[in-house]
Design a protein that fits this description.
The chain has helices spanning 3-19, 28-41; strands at residues 54-62, 65-73, 79-86. With 96 residues, the chain is an alpha+beta fold. The protein starts with a helix and ends in a 10-residue tail after the last strand. The model has no long low-confidence stretch (mean pLDDT 83).
């Protein structure tokens, strides 16, 4: 898909966001409408495909970080690998 086509679809959503004051709250209807426009512009399927995540282990390069190796499925049956950086399940205690 040409980039200009995607840009033309995202411009209305961007203009809507720019027109709102920074402190303004969206109504539920406005938020739902904006989400629908963004999903349509980015061709996000509804319903979303199953993730089918698989973990291949984790390690901690530092006491404050755990890296988990995972893969997940795409709508086309391909697997995507990813690293998830997260806090450890048992965070280190800070010295007092």
């Amino acid at each position: 898909m040409p980039r200009t086509h995607l840009t033309r679809k995202l411009i209305p959503a961007a203009l809507l966001l720019a027109a709102l004051p920074s402190q303004a709250k969206l109504t539920k209807h406005q938020a739902d409408d904006l989400r629908q426009k963004i999903r349509a512009a980015l061709f996000i399927p509804n319903p979303l495909p199953a993730v089918d995540a698989k973990s291949y282990g984790s390690f901690s390069p530092t006491p404050e970080v755990t890296i988990e190796r995972v893969t997940y499925a795409t709508a086309y049956g391909l697997r995507v690998s990813a690293n998830i950086y997260r806090p450890p399940t048992n965070p280190p205690t800070s010295p007092r």
